[in-house]
Design a protein that fits this description.
Layout (H helix, E strand, L loop, with lengths): L1 H19 E10 L4 E7 L4 E6 L3 E5 L5 E5 L6 E6 L5 E6 L3 E10 L2 E11 L13 E6 L6 E5 L4 E4 L1 H5 L18 E7 L2 E9 L3 E6 L4 E7 L4 E6 L5 E6 L4 E5 L10 E3 L10 E7 L7 E6 L3 H4 L3 E7 L2 E7 L3 E7 L11 E6 L2 E6 L7 E2 L12 E7 L4 H12 L16 E2 L9 E6 L3 E6 L6 E7 L4 E2 L19 E3 L14 E6 L5 E6 L3 E8 L3 E3 L2 E6 L16 E2 L4 E3 L2 E11 L6 E5 L4 E5 L3 E6 L4 E7 L17 H17 L4 H23 L20 E10 L6 E9 L3 E8 L12 E9 L6 E7 L26 E7 L2 E7 L3 E7 L8 E10 L7 E9 L3 E6 L5 E6 L6 H5 L2 E2 L4 E7 L2 E8 L8 E2 L19 H15 L2 E5 L4 E5 L12 E2 L1
Parallel strand pairs: 24-35, 40-43
Antiparallel strand pairs: 1-62, 2-3, 3-4, 4-5, 6-7, 7-8, 8-9, 10-11, 11-12, 13-14, 14-15, 15-16, 17-18, 18-19, 19-20, 21-22, 22-23, 23-24, 25-26, 26-27, 27-28, 29-31, 30-63, 31-32, 32-33, 34-41, 36-37, 37-38, 38-43, 39-42, 44-45, 45-46, 46-47, 48-49, 49-50, 50-51, 52-53, 53-54, 54-55, 56-57, ...
Length: about 1000
């Protein structure tokens, strides 16, 4: 009977786990790391981005997102949508072609790879014969033209790719080298004609039906790109010497160009890699091209030039340009809403070409989270509506320079349900900014940006503005984009953030021991920020700080815009990195800790309540500071950057790499100080270990410290040496709170036997439920804690979870995490898990991330292991260190410097894309071949059949070369292949 009962209990527990817990990686927020290809489908209104890691990502209307990953570890070099279809083709740098489709399943679309294909040649043929360099998806949707490095052009049918067929010609007839095929483009008014651009400069207009060259254009410079104008009467070619030419399309070979232009002068210029011309309803056309800058003076600039009538602007982007295109009037637009979409290495920029001044359209997704390097994160769930509206209003005042036009990429339908609550993700950055993101749904939308640099005197030169452009400057540069990796002072970096969603108080702490307390204000204000110096060493002799100096604060009043405004500054001495921070807005207290100790500050009276030094006398490393070894290189880099900006010379990329290396060293030192993974068994640690006094966690609680009859406010602190301090706080009555001081008295000190670092502290009430957040009960968002039963203290160390009874602090139970595999706790947080079957049932649990990248959920209060999921690669130390949990069983971690991976452990709270993309209507207006029985598809097939039967060949003549056009004889009726030599 006992065995049966135990089995039944275990079955019930397993069933409960299935109702509460389910692990999914749901969506990736941010900007794709190392993008390498761009494409757009006008019929689907979808944007596609390929990356160097082999990922392919599709974006439509906000919330419409798809992601696929190639099995091959190869970069995506080209992406092409098949016109008026839901398929697209990707080309990898291993020369493989892959076909993808958006297949509908149970009312939702999913991105699937349905075929792959590699163009191969006969035995002994050089690889260049079939190395694909250019791809054209024909408007018929039934043909792909593949240009190769050897100068050939193959025509294949996309369904043969999905069928995994290899198209290999029987033989190769004599030919002459025309270099690689650089460009392929279709005549916009006659789909039977295509233009073929060769690297050496020759441009050929080829008729697919007549199977002959209609015209030869003998450009003399190396070709970079071609563009066939919308009326079909001209072809533009851009070249490696910074010039572009306009050629008339007609019968017979062209002897000279209609117009040749080098836009940026007679000095040597960089290549114009792409050129586009767009007509307007009235007036001259738009001409857009990338590159072409004078090589000596501005060779380091990443520019796209836009010329319209007398307006000429060189849009200066923040990083290397990958590709660009222009969105014209879509199916639902009646008038031209031209938008220039530019993909650069570090961000996506969309520019409104119809509004005066050509302003930027704010992106609802693909926002560069890493515009300054992310240094920390903080998530706040269930934001009250009032606070949400105030933050939104403050953020909208910062976005007045954006275009009023709506987001132009609107493909697909977002079928995801509305978010059940409003969530905020706050990211701290190296430049001293805190950015607020709407993390409620699939899109991580920017809401508001707070800058703390204005409180301090930094090394930044206010006159050193890269965005400034003098009147009449040539080229007419205009800085575009928000990616800025420069940090004028690394001491500004934000390390800890804590926001009270009920009171609107925010506290942020930085790299140089600075703690700012801010309050939300709807009006601009000018006020002096009062500073308090806190000596954490408490006058101990024999210690000398060898690290960076503290930031110099401005003594004059600081003008703050609407939003969060600083009113108080706590400066730790020594100015070490702040490693722990917490705020209790009901008590008006802030607690902070560094590697030297911790303190408590009353921000209502602006007084220090107490300071505790935790520094071990033998710990000399704690006196050096993590920035001491990289400060000099950062200072020299900053000086170098300013010289570069003033003189506007090159070498910028080299210095950016150096700065990134310096940032990486800083992150590595911080990780070594706090989070270095160690694989070992549990063993006692020596008190002489480095950084034993480093404060890892701080926690406010109203609980029992002196006796079981009287609860009292308290502060708990855990250190790297396995020590827990508890302080009893005495708060004056509300009417005397502004006059009488807050006092504190040390009540408890616990030393863990193995001296493992304490990474978390939680106090459970009489029902075993974690205590609510400050002001949560007052706002009727949580039940009052049970103050009648015994409270329990849960101490989370790197190696185990141990429960103590209060107030006697006697050990009650524990759960050891560390075993032979060396797992150690890196992150821990309390979360609430709701049942997916019963809306009324939920329970609290402890979510834990280990240095192995594994996620655990531990039940409370009995600390039993519930579920275990692998999440992050154990080698990804930065990803593990960046992880942040939500209050409802979700989490975020950085998978690259610019992307958060979102995951969920809950069956009830899941945020993931749910989208549908339908096949576009097949109309004559969108496809000219649909109503023409003798269109390009049937005509091309007749030509191929005729050529295959007769094995015809002919010589094409032009000024530079003679080329042989021939057709080989593959298996007739099953494989169609046309080679242009």
């Amino acid at each position: 009977m006992k065995r049966f009962r135990r089995h039944g209990h275990e079955s019930h527990r397993d069933k409960l786990k299935q109702e509460l817990f389910q692990f999914n990686k749901t969506v990736e927020h941010g900007f794709p790391h190392q993008p390498s290809a761009l494409s757009y489908s006008p019929s689907l209104e979808l944007l596609a981005i390929g990356t160097r890691s082999g990922a392919i990502k599709l974006y439509g209307a906000p919330g419409v997102e798809f992601m696929g990953l190639h099995d091959e570890n190869a970069a995506v070099t080209q992406v092409h949508f098949l016109p008026n279809q839901v398929e697209l083709v990707t080309l990898l740098d291993d020369n493989s072609l892959h076909m993808w489709t958006l297949r509908a399943h149970q009312g939702l679309s999913e991105l699937l790879e349905i075929g792959r294909f590699t163009l191969t040649g006969p035995p002994g043929a050089p690889p260049s014969v079939t190395r694909v360099t250019a791809v054209l998806a024909h408007s018929s949707g039934e043909l792909l033209l593949l240009g190769t490095e050897g100068g050939h052009v193959f025509i294949v049918e996309p369904e043969k790719i999905s069928g995994r067929e290899k198209l290999v010609p029987d033989d190769y007839i004599g030919r002459r080298n025309l270099e690689h095929v650089e460009a392929l483009q279709e005549n916009p008014v006659n789909p039977d004609q295509v233009v073929i651009g060769y690297g050496r400069g020759l441009v050929v207009i080829w008729d697919l039906v007549k199977q002959c060259a209609l015209q030869h254009i003998p450009a003399t410079q190396q070709l970079e790109s071609v563009w066939w104008t919308e009326d079909g009467q001209h072809i533009l070619s851009s070249h490696s010497d910074g010039s572009y030419c306009r050629w008339i399309v007609g019968e017979g070979d062209v002897n000279e160009d209609e117009k040749s232009d080098i836009p940026y002068g007679h000095f040597p210029c960089k290549a114009i890699s792409k050129i586009v011309q767009l007509p307007t309803e009235k007036g001259p056309p738009f001409v857009l091209f990338s590159g072409g800058m004078p090589r000596a003076s501005y060779g380091d600039r990443h520019c796209i030039t836009v010329i319209h009538s007398k307006t000429h602007v060189a849009l200066d982007f923040t990083s290397r340009i990958i590709d660009f295109f222009v969105i014209r009037d879509g199916p639902q637009h009646k008038e031209h809403d031209d938008a220039l979409v530019v993909l650069v290495e570090e961000e996506l920029v969309v520019i409104d070409l119809q509004t005066d001044g050509w302003p930027v359209i704010q992106t609802p997704y693909l926002v560069p989270l890493h515009s300054s390097a992310i240094t920390c994160s903080h998530h706040v769930s269930a934001i009250p509506l009032k606070l949400w509206e105030r933050v939104t209003a403050a953020g909208s005042l910062q976005k007045t320079h954006y275009s009023k036009k709506p987001w132009p990429i609107t493909g697909g339908q977002n079928l995801a349900p509305d978010p059940p609550q409003r969530d905020l993700l706050l990211t701290g950055h190296e430049d001293g900014t805190v950015r607020f993101w709407d993390a409620s749904g699939v899109c991580l939308n920017p809401m508001y940006k707070l800058s703390t640099a204005g409180v301090f005197h930094t090394d930044a030169d206010p006159n050193d503005n890269m965005n400034s452009g003098s009147e009449g400057e040539w080229p007419p540069f205009r800085k575009v984009g928000c990616f800025d990796p420069y940090s004028d002072d690394p001491r500004l970096g934000i390390q800890k953030i804590h926001l009270c969603k009920y009171s609107g108080y925010l506290t942020v702490a930085g790299t140089a021991g600075q703690i700012l307390v801010l309050e939300l204000n709807d009006e601009a204000a000018e006020q002096t920020v009062e500073a308090k110096i806190v000596d954490l060493l408490q006058g101990q002799e024999g210690f000398r700080w060898k690290g960076h100096t503290r930031l110099d604060m401005r003594e004059e009043p600081v003008l703050s815009p609407p939003g969060f405004q600083p009113f108080c500054l706590v400066q730790c001495q020594p100015p070490a990195v702040v490693t722990a921070l917490t705020l209790h807005s009901e008590w008006k207290l802030v607690a902070f800790g560094t590697s030297h100790g911790f303190g408590l500050f009353d921000y209502q009276q602006k007084n220090t309540v107490f300071v505790k030094c935790t520094l071990n006398p033998s710990d000399q490393l704690a006196m050096e500071g993590p920035l001491s070894r990289v400060k000099s290189i950062k200072k020299s880099l900053r000086q170098s950057f300013r010289r570069i900006r003033r003189s506007r010379v090159s070498l910028r990329k080299h210095h950016i790499n150096n700065l990134q290396e310096a940032n990486a060293r800083l992150e590595a030192e911080l990780a070594e100080m706090e989070l270095a993974p160690v694989q070992r068994k549990i063993e006692a640690r020596s008190s002489d270990d480095s950084f034993t006094g480093l404060v890892r966690t701080l926690y406010f609680a109203d609980t029992f410290l002196s006796d079981s009859a009287h609860n009292t406010p308290s502060l708990w602190a855990g250190t790297n040496g396995g020590c827990v301090f508890a302080y009893m706080l005495r708060l004056p009555n509300v009417e005397h709170r502004a006059d009488e001081p807050v006092t504190a008295q040390q009540a408890k000190e616990i030393q863990l036997m193995h001296r493992a670092p304490v990474v978390g502290i939680v106090i459970l009430d009489g029902h075993g439920v974690p205590l609510p957040e400050p002001l949560e009960v007052a706002h009727d968002l949580a039940r009052s804690p049970d103050m009648h039963g015994l409270h329990h203290l849960l101490v989370i160390s790197e190696e185990q979870f141990k429960v103590f009874t209060l107030p006697k602090v006697s050990a009650k139970m524990k759960l050891k995490l560390t075993a032979l595999d060396g797992s150690r706790v890196r992150r821990a947080g309390v979360a609430w898990f709701g049942s997916n079957r019963s809306e009324d049932y939920c329970e609290s649990g402890l979510v834990v991330l280990t240095n192995q990248g594994d996620l655990h959920v531990v039940s409370l209060p009995n600390v039993k292991m519930q579920v275990h999921y692998p999440c992050i690669r154990r080698e990804d130390v930065s990803g593990i260190a960046s992880c942040v949990f939500t209050k409802h069983g979700q989490g975020f971690y950085l998978i690259s410097p610019s992307e958060f991976e979102r995951f969920s452990l809950s069956t009830r709270h899941v945020v993931e894309p749910r989208s549908l993309v339908e096949v576009p209507l097949y109309s004559a207006s969108s496809n000219q071949c649909s109503s023409q029985p003798d269109g390009v598809t049937s005509a091309a097939r007749r030509v191929m059949e005729h050529a295959l039967l007769n094995d015809e060949s002919e010589y094409l003549r032009d000024r530079c070369n003679k080329a042989i056009v021939s057709c080989t004889r593959p298996l007739f009726g099953s494989k169609k292949l046309l080679q242009l030599y």
